[in-house]
Amino acid sequence: MNIEAEIKNDSPHIIDETKIPLLRSIGLTTAILMVACTIIGSGVFKKITPMSAMLMNKNYILLAWALAGIVSIFGAFTMAGMATMTTESGGIYEYLRLSFGNLFSFLYGWASFLILGSGGNAAVAYIFADSVNSIVPLPNPLDKWKDVSIGHFIYPFDSSGVKIFAVFSIIILTWINVLGTRKGGNLNNVLTVAKIIGILTLVVMGLSYTGAPHTGTITHVTTVSTNIFSAIIAAMVGAFWAYDGWYCIGFMSGEIKNPKRNVPLSIITGLGIVIGLYLLVNYAFMHVLSLETLASMDENKIAGVEVARFIAGNTGVVFLAILIAVSTFGTLNAIMITYARLYYRMAQEKFFPKKFANVHPRFRTPYNALIYSGIWTCIMVFSGTFDILTDTTIIVEFLFFILLGWGLIKMKRQGKITSKVIAYPFSPVILILFSIGLVINTIVVEPVQSVAGLIFTFSGIPLYYYYKKKSKKLNLKTLS
């Protein structure tokens, strides 16, 4: 009796949960909305402030957003080409594995678990809880221990109310997503539609303003560079943070219907929607507030909130706070769903703990991958180090984008990708060249964060050889 029959007939035999397949229950519409939901977080509401200080020109600011979107689209074209190789889960991990073997793919997965995925989840959960706190102040039950530290570096009880609420949100979303991919997908659809409606409402509010751009109290304006080319590149880095996450849907290829068609379509369509929304909402911000006002804004303030405050007073502030809460909650749900599938795929390939490959016999979800990654994310929330970790992610992410572009060229030349790839060979070449430039610039501008990111990533090398040795022993045992 095969595994499907045993599950269907509720067989009394013990079922090996690592052999249970995931269900292909995600259609194209849900996949597109998941791409958009993963991308749209809090960045679009705040990045206009540093970008204004860098450029002080509306056209250049919109150009920076557009160029960052175009580079991301070239990345999407590249990943779309790689997605035609396989129907398995894992996304970039799986594409690197097929192109270069297990070492680079493992390092990507390790970096994802350690900082890219879990650190991002913790940061988004904290931002969500903090946005809720701005609407309904949360109590701090552990406030008397807020000065307790571990090495004067980690303050686990500081802002305890926000952290507890963040952990609570992670637990709830983990539970929902364990109960079924479709349930998590449906929640994602509702939240994404709410995000889009909210952003379009903000755009209409902004464009309906008929006066001259408001010039409030200008405290200072610090421009970063007199070289406009350098300034645009610097502004694009901020925009990339707001565009981040477009590639996550690839992690779920094993649960998407017709993945070789729908993964590429969902990435390109979802990212295209986001680019349009970002250009509209930033144009609306600059229509309401002057560049001088935006550029001089305190870094702790959110530009979108100030725009809403000017247009609609306290009502506007509450509206924006709710919109940011919905946006970050939706992003948290989407990245929790997707990254768990990456760890699941690593365990399938015997390069992560075996339990991560378990699939729930009833709900058909990688429940252990969801639960264990959720636990690590909660630990990171209380550690308060996620901001430090996520500061190191840019160089790591773009290093793997270089490999992604190189992998597409390699697989096309070897004839392992025969389908047409949009804008090939320009898409992978542009992705590679831009990623190399960004990596070099990041090393020069932020050497400490860059070195930290590389250390975190390459710390996985000993672990890789451990799993490689363990896998070899298991294979020999099976053969014998």
List keywords for this structure.
mainly alpha; Amino acid/polyamine transporter I; 69% helix; globular
Explain the overall architecture.
The chain has 480 residues and is mainly alpha-helical. It has a single domain, classed as Amino acid/polyamine transporter I (Up-down Bundle). 69% of the residues lie in helices and 0% in strands. It has 19 helices and no strands. Helix 16 (393-413) crosses helix 18. It is globular. The mean pLDDT is 85.
Summary of the model, kept short:
By secondary structure, this protein is mainly α. It has helices spanning about 5-10, 30-40, 50-55, 60-85, 90-100, 100-115, 120-135, 160-180, 180-205, 230-245, 260-290, 290-295, 305-350, 365-385, 385-390, 395-415, 425-445, 445-460, 460-480.
Secondary structure elements and pairings:
Elements: H1 3-8, H2 28-39, H3 48-55, H4 58-83, H5 92-100, H6 102-116, H7 118-135, H8 160-178, H9 181-207, H10 228-243, H11 259-288, H12 291-295, H13 303-348, H14 367-383, H15 386-390, H16 393-413, H17 426-445, H18 447-458, H19 461-479
Helix pairs in contact: 2-9, 2-11, 2-13, 3-10, 4-10, 4-11, 4-16, 4-17, 5-6, 5-16, 6-13, 6-16, 7-8, 7-13, 7-14, 8-9, 8-13, 8-14, 9-11, 9-13, 13-14, 16-17, 16-18, 17-18
Oligomerization: single chain
Reported for the largest beta sheet, the result is:
none
Helix content: 55-70%
CATH architecture: Up-down Bundle
Strand content: under 5%
